[in-house]
User: Fold this.
Amino acid sequence: MKSELSLNESLNRMKKIIGLPINEGNLYEDDLFEIDWEGDFSDVKKTCMPLPQVVEYLNDVISNRDLDTKDRKKFPASMPFVHAKTRFLGSNDEYKYGTVKQTFETSDIQSFVKKMTEPPHNVVNTNAKMIKSGGPNDFVYKTGLPAFRGLAYDLQNNKFFIINTCPGAGTCRQGCYALSGQYIQYPAAYDSMTRRLNYFLNFPKEYQERLYNELKNICVEHKAIKGYKFRVMFRWNDSGDFFTQKYIKMAEEVVNKLKKDGYNIISAAHTKIASVAQDSKLDSTSFSADANKKELNKIDPETQKLSVRLPSSEFDDLDLDRIDDLETLKERVADFYDISDIKNIISYDEMMQIKDKGVKRYYVIITPNDGDDALYRADVKKIIHTEH
Assistant:
């Protein structure tokens, strides 16, 4: 049987993978893996999670593993989501053959940390919603981190932290799409997001290089290169947010370098951080109106593109595939948001038939079946998501 690598051996192997020098002694004797809480990440909102609390919490998570949703233990919003079937707690074969452990002990921490802090398979990917977006010459990709709260391990200081990955969050916590559906249904999505967070915090330089190289390779693959008609559209934070200035700065630097190097790429983000919405150098941003009051009070709704969620009570009696029902919805939207000119309220399909003239004008109704193009357009004043 193949022997289990120690945490130090695993981290040395990680160093080799990412091209860092090997330390034959105790990895924690140097500052190579230190999260810079006093510098780059001094603005991160975090809570230290003592080891006994981690063990207790993971056992509570495991206890939900085979229960129906209605019977599962509920956790406070201050705790990070951990998937009960994460591969950090067991291998594919252990889950497949029913041999995965049903309790978590202190002695299991080393294996858990090793798996959680492995470099992610990728930091850029796509999904069905992204593929729906863009025109015939556009290729749409995304990146994301854990929503609301994430679990991180400081490799230098040997400590767990709960990271607030959505510091601008407000009422969005109720009904957050990134805390439902495939984001929590499948352990692979959780594992990927959590590894990205840990890779970013422990290896920010290497994370930035990964971002650049993965996007560069995608541009090359699709001929999104100067002189060609193709383009990559990239969305930041399909879950999570720019929870630290280090992250938004990294985003701007990566995209700017790609453009300077001759690649056809535009990037955009939904955010609940007012300073990002107003001041970032991304191609487009939309401020989510279900942010907290502190961030909301910094926004001028007349000049800033907004994303809002329309309550289901406004459309749950309608079939949004029917033309007449869609026109009825436009009338309700006009009343709900006090929009004087109903001609400026359009559907996603209607928007896609209109050339972007760069002047904020349109209120675009987005259903779960629609793409994300309104985020990238300069002529969209408000993105109205049907709550789902």
User: Anything to note?
Assistant: The CA atoms of residues 121 and 263 lie 23 Å apart. Residues 1-5, 15-32 have pLDDT under 50 and may be disordered. Residues 305-388 form one domain.
